Amino acid sequence: MMSKLRFPLSLPVLTLTASLTALPLQADTLRIAIMGEPASLDPHKISGTWENDVVGDLFEGLITEAADGERIPGVAESWEISEDGTVYTFQLRQDARWSDGEPVTAEDFVFAFRRILTPATAADYAYLLYPVQNAEAIYTGEAEPETLGIEALDDHTLQITLERSTPYFLDQLSHYTAYPVPRHVVEEHGDRWSRPGSMVSNGPFKLQRWQSQTRIEAIRNEHFHDADNVALDQVIYFPIEERNTALNRFRAGEIDVAREFPTQQYRWLRDNLPDATHTAPFLGIYYYVLNSREGHPTADPRVRKALSLAVRREVITEQILGTGEEPAYSFVPPGVSHYEPAMVPFVDMSQEERLERARELMSEAGYGPDNPLQLRLRYNTSEDHRQVAIAIGAMWEPLGVEVDLFNSEIAVHYADLRQGDFDVGRAGWIGDYNDAQNFLSLLESGVANNYGAYSNEEFDALMREAAETQDLDRRGEIMAEAERLALEDSATLPIFYYVSRNLVNPALQGWENNIEDIHRSRWVSFEE
Amino acid sequence: MTTEHTATHPGAGDLPAGESLGRDAWRRLKQNRAAMVSLVLLILIAIACVVGPWLTPWGLNEVNWNAFRAPPSLADGHLAGTDANGRDLLTRTLYGGQISLSVALVATLVSLVIGVLYGAIAGYLGGRVDNLMMRFVDIMYSLPFMFLVILLMVVFGRNILLIYAAIGAVEWLDMSRIVRGQTLALKRREFVEAARALGVRSRTIVMRHLIPNTLGPVVVYVTLTVPKVILLESFLSFLGLGVQEPMTSWGVLISEGVDMMQGAPWMLLVPSTFLAVTLLCLNFLGDGLRDALDPRTR
Amino acid sequence: MLLYVFKRLLQAIPTLLIVITLSFFLMHLAPGGPFDGERQLPAEIEANLRAAYHLDQPVWRQYLIYLGNLLQGDFGPSFRYKDFTVTELIAQGFPVSLELGLWAIALAIALGLPLGIVAALHRNSSVDYLVMGTALAGVAIPNFVIAPILALVFGVLLAWLPVGGWNDGHWRNMVLPVVALSIQQVAYIARMTRASMIEVLGTHYIRTARAKGLSEREVIWRHALRPALLPVVSYLGPAIAGIITGSVVIEQIFGIPGIGRYFVQAALNRDYTLVMGTVVFYGILIVLLNLIVDVLYSALDPQIRYDD
Predict the structure, then answer these.
(1) Which family does it belong to (chain C) (predicted)?
(2) Does residue C26 register a pLDDT over 80?
(3) Which residues does chain B have within 8 Å of residue A406's beta carbon, measured at their own beta carbons?
(4) What is the pLDDT, as a whole number, of residue B168?
(5) Which residues contact B43 (CB under 8 A, 6 or more apart)?
(6) How confident is residue B4, by pLDDT bands cut at 50, 70 and 90?
(7) Distance between the two ends of chain A, CA-based, in angstroms?
(8) Closest Cα to residue B71, out of B272, B245, B270, B255?
(9) Do the chains contact at B86 and A319, CB–CB below 8 Å?
(10) ω before B10 within 30° of 0 (cis)?
(11) How confident is the model at residue C39 (pLDDT cuts 50, 70, 90)?
């Protein structure tokens, strides 16, 4: 009998002896905890910030990011922009090479741009390239990929033609949707080209190994044009969803950079690991969507305004979160280039005045102690979202608002927002690129991510006008005017501007906080 | 080796009415000190959870804007401190106890009734019926339970009773397995065969002879099921499928507290203590009950 | 016996078919879809994606397509992890979960059985209380509390062992997760063993064996242990299946790339193919484990025969 029981026991013994050897750690190895498992390493098939962390080290676009996030030339050495701002001509570096030694040519960019827009690729982020001529028509299947406004004039000269002048287009070219892909490899391996073994990239590092859900290893790419200035030999990315685990592993010295840490631990970290704890303003807004659809109490601008007035943003940023978030009184975060955000009209009122005004508005709208307003507030499951929702619910109590909190996992949450099945819903937006349009377009009529279905013709007209305007500062003023309209209307309820939260080994040099929270490993080195 | 216990088995027919069986068990239970202490503690916790929230100076969802993550203090009435939202932790723990205890009780009861009956019938009838019934259990086991619950929650809204039902409907599987295993072993024993030979109806054999004899492992299993249910409930809440704010449960409070382990240890300690004491008591009580109910020690 | 095993395996086919069918339709009824994320995709892009994964077809057509692929051993591509097929993901995740789970079960048995037997032999003494009290602490504290505490104490503060990661199954990375995973099982097994041991010791044939003058050791090893293990064995089937798939919390906290983590991630992401893949795989696993348990059962208890 006992011998029969031994059968299942003997198995692990065998597997253990087979795996006793650990991997030797190279001296200059950077170990980064990224916030999730990448969906893919094909730049055309990703959409998360954690994927950007990895893919951005493997590839380089025409334009790339410096340590402080500034845009600097990447594969492109120089460029010319036509008078009307619609034709860009890039000179590519002669020494740009793929990690297999093949040269990076203009043809690789043409191939990549066409590929990401081909409907069959089903790239979920392709719409970022819509400024390029014919891109939208191609993506919706109305035109052939060959008609895209991109052309290789010769091996090292690339011309891109836009639908219309797009002031932020150069910035966008550093985004992973605009990375080149190696035509010779993709054509050989098809969709599986981005796996270890077959993947070839043109960035400072190249993929060596990918063990799903546990680690991705990249080593330096000797063919990279600036390889001499890359200090690290190896980068290992650990996908860790649990922020507390990332913190513990950082404390134990198992990782050098954690791309996020739990807000709840901030005080402790600030006291105990001040040199390692980095927080910095981040290009993102945390807001509540107010449902403007017919039949919801929040369709009444007075109710929306009252709700916004009653939220004590300072309490949320200081007491609830306390990680250095700034209270938000505008929809576009500060620090966006060529843009001075508008502010909500009540920004200078005291809390008492705000509450007084909110009460008046509520009774004008027909709500009061006899007729309390019932609201359904949806948020997606997360400790931070929960705490903010509870606090805001309590802040609305003095207005006689009764809040029903609903939390659900992320897929259900956003599906419900889309279907308009809510009164108030949590949302957040991280800028895809450093431009106000990327935020304000969320409030244009009929736009996909306009969850509250806010619609204001005047706002739409201003946004159209801004899109036609060449002068960047003038354009910014027009958009600020649009934002002012939306804020007066309380189209949404901005709560706070995000901060980026990183834990960084103090021995690392060259790691700089920046507003987009983009950190490429090529700039980083360990102290000698 | 199996010829010794023929005639004198208590199930074989000489037992008086059920009432005295209960009284007999109670007498045995009273002799077990650990079990009695546990029973008293459990009753105290249950009373505290029901009555306590009225006695604390703070409400379930009442925010003290001056005390976020405040440590326990007598001065402002937060005997167990406050949570990250400035709400009184003791009040919330007591309310949470109401949810956790009722979820555990109802779900365990559901699993107990279904599991014992199902397992005993399958084991007793044996053969093709047994096979069919156990295949059904296999199917239930292989179901993506989480989807079933998600689905239920969406179709019927966020009704706590549904969590009870869903958890109970899953937990009976283990129970039925164990009872079936016991029954399979028991039914070949002579006292059952004797009863059958005497023409006792199957229903009576199952209810009077088989089930009482499986009670030992079953009671033990019940005391194992209660903590499992409490944890399962917290797991569901964690995924956003359990109790919704402002309601809470011990599992939810503990999972909140784990994140605050270093900054605000009371947020972990207070609900964990309630949970741990409850579970330990349930276990000791379970042992006591097992001893008291075991017909063979009589 | 062989015939019995063969028959059971044949019966597994309809079982699995029901599992597949039920979970497939349940899953497609669940709210939210694989493309519902933080950012809504433009309608035409979502249409492209849906077409690429056949989601634009009626559900019954999708079901038939899926079933057809499954028959050819093709679990399909993962909706979310686009560089891997579901088969590859399971092939990567399962050995990890299996290794972790078997070690945990082994540790739980190695500790739980003797503890339970000792407690039963010294029933109601201080030894009993001490042993069971310690074991019970394992059920009294949720493992999502124990795991971070273990990581904090042994990983961060004492720095004896790694806090997380798998490191290709290096033993140092396995210690904490295995312990965290087995603590609860130790308690379960110790209690089941103690309970059934006490029960067996109370039976007449043990009394008779003692009356015959057999030594205590002989009574326990030759007569009591075997029947006492029955409930424990019947518990092991579901326990192993549960430990392998249900170690989500542990896998999450220690960052271990096991199958349990995939399942929950996939369910939350509505990664239909990966969920189906893990469910089907899980189904097969359970059928096999149950079969093994039943075979073990009959080996332990000669009174049960599978001739009918």
Answers:
(1) Belongs to the binding-protein-dependent transport system permease family.
(2) no
(3) 158, 244
(4) 78
(5) none
(6) very low
(7) 62
(8) B270
(9) yes
(10) no
(11) low
ipTM confidence score: 0.82
What's the domain range around C188?
1-308
Res A127 pLDDT > 50: yes
What per-residue confidence (pLDDT) applies to B157?
A: 53
**What own/partner pairs with CB < 8 Å and gap ≥ 24 does B230-233 have?**
B230/B100, B230/B103, B230/B104, B230/B275, B230/B279, B231/C142, B232/B167, B232/B171, B233/B99, B233/B100, B233/B103, B233/B104, B233/B107, B233/B163, B233/B167
Residue B12 CA to residue B128 CA, distance in Å, equals 27
DSSP classification of residue B87: B
CATH class given for the domain over B20-59+74-292: mainly alpha
List CB contacts (< 8 A) between B239 and chain A.
Answer: 381, 409
Q: Which of A261, A321, A390 to mutate to test the interface with B (most CBs of B within 10 A)?
A: A390
Show the tokens assigned to C28.
């497609």
Strands A71-73 and A63-65, bridge-based pairing: antiparallel
B240 touches chain A (CB under 8 A): yes
Query: Which of A465-479, B187-201, B229-243 is predicted least confidently?
Result: B229-243
Nearest CA in chain A to C255: A240
Q: Could you tell me if C140 lies within 8 Å of chain B, comparing CB atoms?
A: yes
B221 has pLDDT over 80: no
Q: Give the closest-approach CA distance of A406 to chain B in angstroms.
A: 7
pLDDT, tens only, C240-270: 766 765 577 788 888 888 887 777 777 777 8
Q: Which residue of C has its CA nearest to B175?
A: C235
CB-based contact, C296 to chain A, within 8 Å:
yes
Query: The domain spanning residue C17 has which CATH number?
Result: 1.10.3720.10
Separation in Å, CA of A375 to nearest CA in chain B: 14
Query: What pLDDT band is residue B295 in, cutting at 50, 70 and 90?
Result: low
pLDDT at A358: 92
Asked if the Cβ–Cβ distance from C252 to A245 is below 8 Å, we say yes
CB contact under 8 A, A39 and C44: no
How many beta-carbon contacts under 8 Å exist across A and C? 182
Q: What is the pLDDT of residue B146?
A: 58
Q: Which residues have a Cβ under 8 Å from the Cβ of C35 and sit 6 or more positions away? A: A124, C41, C46, C49, C50
The DSSP line for B211-255 is HHHHHHHHHHHHHHHHHHHHHHHHHHHHTT-SPPTT---HHHHHH
pLDDT at A174: 92
Contact B252, B245 (CB under 8 A): no
Residues whose CB falls within 8 Å of the CB of residue A457, separated by 6 or more in sequence, listed in order: A445
Q: What angle do CA B8, B9, B13 make, to 5 degrees?
A: 95
Q: What is the pLDDT of residue A492?
A: 93
Q: Is-contact A479 A437, C-beta < 8 A?
A: yes
Pairwise CB contact (< 8 Å): B216 & C241? no
pLDDT for residue A12 is more than 60: no
Which chain B residues touch C193 with a CB distance below 8 Å? none
Interfacial C residues in 195-224 facing A (CB < 8 Å): none
